[in-house]
Write a structure and sequence with these properties.
It is a single chain. By secondary structure, this protein is an alpha+beta fold. It contains five helices and six strands. The protein has a two-stranded antiparallel ribbon. The chain has a two-stranded antiparallel ribbon with strand order 3-4. A two-stranded antiparallel ribbon has the order 5-6. The longest helix is centred in the first third of the chain and has 10 residues. The protein starts with a strand and ends in a 6-residue tail after the last helix.
Length: 121
């Protein structure tokens, strides 16, 4: 957890254990846009330092990474949980909504977002 402007903020990206290759592939498959079809926010852009970029996207798990995790599916192997097939690219706002409202955003909804046409718009 970190503190920003006097508020405790949980770094959601730090809690998801995907390797860098999965993170890059997940972002690239969406054209660096949020996978939520009602959002599609651009998740990267320029930073003040020309050698860097700003990223507000998160590679989040569709099914929880460990027992007790949101939308955990015991049928998945550990390798499947850490694979790109269990990963979805979301903006910072949508990842918080998805993380906090499992009833509204079950795994089936998140998987449907990955399958929507128009990736890389």
């Amino acid at each position: 957890m970190t503190v920003e402007h006097g508020h405790v903020v949980r770094d959601l990206g730090a809690t998801y254990d995907f390797n860098d290759e999965v993170k890059r592939a997940t972002a690239a498959l969406t054209g660096d846009r949020c996978s939520n079809p009602h959002c599609r926010a651009l998740t990267s852009g320029p930073a003040n330092d020309r050698t860097k970029s700003l990223n507000i996207g998160v590679t989040a798990p569709i099914s929880g990474m460990s027992p007790g995790g949101r939308r955990y599916d015991a049928r998945l192997s550990d390798a499947e949980r850490h694979d790109q097939g269990n990963a979805i690219w979301l903006c910072g706002n949508c990842v918080r909504q998805v993380d906090n409202d499992v009833a509204r955003y079950p795994a089936e909804v998140l998987r449907s977002w990955k399958e929507k046409p128009g990736r890389g718009e």
